[in-house]
Write a structure and sequence with these properties.
Keywords: Acyltransferase, Bromodomain, Transferase. Pfam families: Bromodomain, PCAF_N. This is KAT2A acetyltransferase. About 45% of the residues lie in helices and about 5% in strands. It contains 26 helices and 8 strands. The strands form 3 sheets. A 4-stranded antiparallel sheet has the order 3-6-7-8. A two-stranded antiparallel sheet has the order 1-2. The protein starts with about 40 loop residues before the first helix and ends in a 6-residue tail after the last helix.
């Protein structure tokens, strides 16, 4: 503001509307209009925002919305304790808006997590403790019930401290009030206020809160399911009304039991028949009640309904009997054990990683000069990191006010495309670059008849060409004009060009587009081998005479902007590992003394170092020389393995819906379908690669499932079978 002595909290409209209505257009305030409180103009009130980024402005506007919502909550709330917390958060966000800072809850509440082990860990420990002896189908059912309970708890509305006081002993009320305040600040309010960081209730609270709320929550939860039982599908109805009450009763014993092991540090599952003893570290910490006030500032005063939230999540779907076994008895550390022959110990990999990422040890400090083996796009990456170049997706719009900078960039793109693609008509380039984006929905009679799919197509038809602009020093130096076809699963690249004086630096290959002009190079990932079915793009992409259609397939699992950097790092790791291996091989052995003692002849393998140096050559000599012969041999072997009765669990990749945390435990997933694809793509250039993948299937199964599970039994049988076939085919020594 112009006057630093001004204490006004914000500009107030001198002529506020008498009866504001959402459906009426409100008059726009003028920057010269004075504030109703202090008399300063609106421009003075917002002068400090002139150089603030758009992202920060949006964040502040989001906080304004949250402040308004909290203000309404303060006035509607009747419970005194809840009202105080709402009012504190209201003042906190308003202060952060004025100071343009991040909201941080102050006082003695502490920061999440508040207790270990948390509720989720305790409940999962309970499932292992009570049901690990059950068959896989019943054990899976108990696991689903536990996940459903945790999900409900995360969205459950807790009773207020005053309600808790009416049914509990006085010595528990202080502890519950602290936990209730923490729950409001970190879990409940952030569900509707995006400005505040949100945490799951079951992740940050432990046994203390669960003991306080379990009895009443259990009663409300079962009552809610009984009332809404007719809305549940038959399978879920049986699961919830029959098994869930018993599940909660058993859990209640462990929550209130004095000697329950599920809340102990180093919790272990008792060994069962064929089972194993597994430790799960879970340090226990108590929740202390702060003696000082909960907040650093005094809060003000009135009601939360004791009713629970109406949106109770349904239990997890699926047929429990057919699911893969979830990791009830394995920790993440167990999954990191090396089981496959040829695996490099993680300790060695970590040591090498420290070496290649340490500037003093290997790479040296970053400079403007690039190393001889730098990636092709390293220059562009460095320039983007330093803010020299920028990428923006832009397009023309008829429904929004034109942005002068966007229009200038569009003109620059038109010039770049016209200059670099001289065979393309300028009128055609202009029409596509300035193709308008009409932000409107089709509210026609046909739209109403055909419903949402038709509206989606109408919207898609209006979202036409856009351009990825490459900007350097405020001017356009290149771009890609494209049109997306979401319903067909592909995007058409119409123009792709970079100015001549920048092509050497960017190293993007020849300028050109998919249609016409010069063709994109294969080094850029484009190929004339079109894998997309013709029916998918026929009628969507214009077919020009003399044009060559090319395709670039993108894998969503590959971070292409970092791909060259990743490959470079992989090469450095491999190089360092080879150097270490060579250092071991280049061992100098003492000379032979046996000839001085009269020995005339010795076996060559008795010479120190001969066996070590020849082992690699001997292994290489066993490989099949003819690639086609190796391919056919492996193809026949894989076909026999896939038809084996015990191969059914390993035919396809594990689905996340069946085992949500499978890919957190298993670092290198593999299956017979993936092996078939690799074989078709001639990935298996040696038998060792093929055998390693087969063994990896077995190892992953043993990592994830207990030894007595059906999956491990299948893995053991299949392992014996394929090793028998490997010996029979001469791929390994008998």
């Amino acid at each position: 503001q112009a006057n630093d002595a001004c204490k006004c909290n914000g500009w107030k409209n001198p002529n506020p509307p008498t009866a504001p209505r959402m459906d009426l257009q409100q008059p726009v305030a003028n920057l010269s209009e004075p504030c109703r409180s202090c008399g300063h103009a609106l421009a003075d009130h917002v002068s400090h925002l002139e150089n603030v980024s758009e992202e920060e402005i949006n964040r502040l506007l989001g906080m304004v919305v949250d402040v308004e919502n909290l203000f309404m909550s303060v006035h509607k709330e009747e419970d005194t304790d809840t009202k105080q917390v709402y009012f504190y958060l209201f003042k906190l966000l308003r202060k952060c808006i004025l100071q343009m800072s991040q909201p941080v809850v102050e006082g003695s509440l502490g920061s999440p997590p508040f207790e270990k082990p948390n509720i989720e860990q305790g409940v999962l420990n309970f499932v292992q403790y009570k049901f690990s002896h059950l068959p896989p189908k019943e054990r899976q059912t108990m696991y689903e019930l536990s996940k459903m309970f945790l999900l409900c708890l995360n969205y459950w509305k807790l009773e207020t401290p005053s309600q808790f006081r009416q049914r509990s002993q006085s010595d528990d009320v202080a502890t519950y009030k602290v936990n209730y305040t923490r729950w409001l600040c970190y879990c409940h309010v952030p569900q509707s206020c995006d400005s505040l960081p949100r945490y799951e209730t079951t992740h940050v609270f432990g046994r203390s809160l669960l003991k306080s709320i379990f009895t009443v929550t259990r009663r409300q939860l079962l009552e809610k399911f009984r009332v809404e039982k007719d809305k549940l599908v038959p399978e879920k109805r049986t699961l919830i009304l029959t098994h869930f009450p018993k599940f909660l009763s058993m859990l209640e014993e462990e929550i209130y039991g004095e000697n329950s092991p599920i809340w102990e540090a180093d919790f272990t599952v008792p060994a069962t028949e064929g089972g194993q003893l597994v430790s799960r570290p879970a340090a226990v910490s108590t929740v202390a009640v702060p003696a000082t006030p909960l907040f650093s500032k005094k809060l003000s005063n009135s009601s939360s309904s004791a009713n629970v939230d109406s949106s109770t999540p349904e239990p997890l779907p699926g047929n429990a009997g057919e699911k893969r076994k979830l990791p009830e008895s394995l920790t993440l550390e167990d999954a990191k054990r090396i089981r496959v022959m040829g695996d490099i110990p993680m300790e060695l990999v970590n040591e090498v990683m420290l070496t290649i990422t340490d500037p003093a040890a290997m790479l040296g400090p970053e400079t403007s000069l690039l190393s001889a083996n730098a990636a092709r796009d390293e220059t562009a990456r460095l320039e983007e990191r330093r803010g020299i170049i920028e990428f923006h997706v832009i397009g023309n719009s008829l429904s929004q006010k034109s942005n002068k900078k966007i229009l200038m960039w569009l003109v620059g793109l038109q010039n770049v495309f016209s200059h670099q693609l001289p065979r393309m008509p300028k009128e055609y380039i202009t029409r596509l670059v300035f193709d308008p984006y009409v932000a409107r929905m089709a509210a026609t009679g046909a739209g109403l008849v055909w419903g949402a799919p038709f509206l989606t197509l109408c919207i898609a038809a209006n979202r036409k060409h856009k351009t990825l602009a490459l900007i350097k020093d405020g001017r356009v130096i290149g771009g890609i004009c494209f049109r997306m076809f979401p319903t067909q699963g592909f995007t058409e690249i119409v123009f792709c060009a970079v100015t001549s004086n920048e092509q050497v630096k960017v190293k993007r290959g020849e300028a050109g587009g998919v249609q016409g002009a010069q063709l994109p190079s294969e080094r850029s990932g484009f190929s004339k081998d079109i894998k997309v079915p013709k029916s998918r793009y026929l009628g969507y992409i214009k077919d020009y005479e003399g044009a060559t259609l090319m395709e670039c397939e993108l894998n969503p699992r590959i971070p292409y902007t970092e791909l060259s950097h990743i490959i470079k790092k992989q090469k450095e790791i491999i190089k360092k590992l080879i150097e270490r291996k060579q250092a071991q091989i280049r061992k100098v052995y003492p000379g032979l003394t046996c000839f001085k003692e009269g020995v005339r002849q010795i076996p060559i393998e008795s010479v120190p170092g001969i066996r070590e140096s020849c082992s690699l050559a001997a292994e290489k000599g066993k490989e099949l020389k003819d690639p086609d012969q190796l391919y056919n041999t492996l193809k026949n072997l894989l076909a026999q393995i896939k038809t084996h009765p015990s191969a059914w669990p390993f035919m396809e990749p594990v689905k996340k819906s069946e085992a949500p945390d499978y890919y957190e435990i298993i670092r290198f997933p593999i299956d017979l379908k993936t092996m078939t694809e690799r074989l078709k793509n001639r990935y298996y250039v040696t038998k060792k690669l093929f055998i390693a993948d087969l063994q990896r299937i077995i190892t992953n199964c043993r990592e994830y499932n207990p030894p007595d599970s059906d999956y491990c039994k299948c893995a053991n049988t299949l392992e014996k079978f394929f090793y028998f076939k490997l010996k029979e085919g001469g791929l390994i020594d008998k």
